[in-house]
Design goal:
Helices cover about 75% and strands about 0% of the residues. It is built from seven helices and no strands. Keywords: Membrane, Transmembrane, Transmembrane helix.
Length: about 210
Amino acid sequence: MSVETNPKTTPRFGRRRLSIARVITEVSGPALCAVTGLLVVAIRNAGSGAGAAWGGFAALFVAGIPMGYIAKGVKAGKWSDHHVADRTKRAVPLLIALASVAVCAAVLAAVDAPQELVALVLAMLAGLAAVLTITHWWKVSIHAAVAGGLLGIFVVLFGPWALLGLPLLAAVAWSRTVLDAHTWPQVIVGALLGAAVAAAVFPPLR
């Protein structure tokens, strides 16, 4: 008598599942999501050429400097990987990111950059501050928070059609739980936090 094996429990299915989760986690990284939002808003306000320049400048401070600092820390052995999996070690890189984004917002405001771009950077600053505060006690998902914030920004900019991106946000949350980086409450709270901050900060400042 043979026993039918559930394909979802086979090692092959498990490896494929993990591989898909890793790909989603990497392509939806906070830095990439942030750069996407910056470029969309900058180009929307200043055209393809000038917009890309504004977006690239902001991306240097919002994503480039923080990720460069993290990469240097990984190389020095401070952190296990570029996701900084250990919650207790996230405070310093988050503070560096917070300072870098704050400088970016100040410079953009001083040089009369597109108002929507300044508003977006300020929303990112508020989101970082919220994540930093919660991370002191609990490992809220930064992936989900940034992805949720990006979706919230797109809803403000493009209306309800942007909600078609909800399955993508769900995929990001799923990938973080499959990789055991977070629990479902941590990704759900992260996504809701990011969206709430975006909805509260971006519209009145744009």
